[in-house]
Amino acid sequence: MEVNKEQQSNRIPAMEGETPALPAGPVDWPTADPAIREALLAAWSDGSWGTYHGVWIDRLTERLSRLHAREYVLPCSSGTYAVEAALRGVGVKSGDEVVLAGYDFPGNFRAIEQLDARPVLIDIAADSWSLDPSLLDRVWSPSVRAVIVSHLHGALARVETIEAWCRAREIALVEDACQVPGAEIGDRLAGSFGDVSVLSFGGSKLLTAGRGGALLTGREDVFQRAKIHGHRGNDAFPLSQLQAAVLLPQLDALEQRNRQRLAAVEFFARRGVSWSSLTRHVSRASEERSSFYKLGWKYTGEMQGGPTRGMFLQSLQAEGLAIDSGFRGFSQRSDRRCRRPVPLPESELAAHATVLLHHPLLLADEVTLERAAEAFDKVHAAFFSQPAN
Ligand SMILES: *Cc1c(COP(=O)(O)O)cnc(C)c1O
Q1: How many other β-carbons are positioned within 10 Å of the β-carbon of residue 5?
Q2: Distance from the CA of 40 to the center of ligand 1, in angstroms?
Q3: Could you tell me if the CB of 347 is within 6 A of ligand 1?
Q4: Is residue 39 domain-shared with residue 9, that is, in the same domain?
Q5: Which domain holds residue 186?
Q6: Which of 7, 169, 201, 304 could cysteine-pair with 212, CB 3.0–4.6 Å?
Q7: Is residue 389 part of a domain?
């Protein structure tokens, strides 16, 4: 592929007054779902919006428990807090080590530090954004007490393998399923692996209550320790009745919406074969039953002599897309803060190259999806010229 230097320096599509591919800009989130209005009215009518406990929290707890085949569910104030509570629940103590991917949600690193434990960085696999199980033996030490694994950007972690490794060594596994509610792995749902798993109901997430999260576990001791930590005379990190009320109809719709999002992801996979700067090395089997909070790619255009990732993203944003860079990763963190037993090339690549398309677009109609694809076409045509055939 040749880079069209002249076009690259002279024009950024849609930035010079052309009509953007999506003139109305990014698709709204949350959507104006009538089922949410009903839930809010119901919580108003029976006064439950103003109560500490009650039927909405009970129903949500029961529902999440049944769905994930986990006996104990602790609804709480955020996914970030749920990860910390999960680590406390499995008994991580000051001085313990916790294995974490070199590319992950920043709050997970902080959660480990919050317990005065030490992150041990492991690289991610080349075909996902999740830790590579084949490296676990190399990062192990007698101080390792737990492993955190996250499913990120629509790619599912090899969590069955990781679970087996942890079980054989009596190391706790915390599964972060914040980005993939309803995703299926074998005959189980994401959020049902390891000793304890975590969901988020944050304002941008697939299941949203503005804020909120949940811890799920089959172990009563884990549940009790997590619960006791959050208890300060009263529950200090709760999910409210009103939040639970708006989550229930979203759980009803989750499977159908996940299917619709997957169809849009497949559309982008077909349309995207000519987007030479974007790669998505995710196995079909993993993608087929996933759920998509973000649709992730690795941007390799800069290595091909094209614009920086920032410039590339700006051009797509100018076309009306909600697309951004991924996490910054932990490979630059100081040795004082973490142990780094293996090289982290894939984590570094992910930190530099990941671009993420936000999920609301994935529920849009065909016309909008086609326009979004045209935005990618347009930006590619501007920055990269195809070799003559
Ligand atoms: C969003 C997210 C969290 C934290 O959830 P909040 O509810 O926003 O605190 C944790 N892990 C991952 C992978 C996330 O995407």
Answers
A1: 12
A2: 25
A3: no
A4: no
A5: 34-250
A6: 201
A7: no
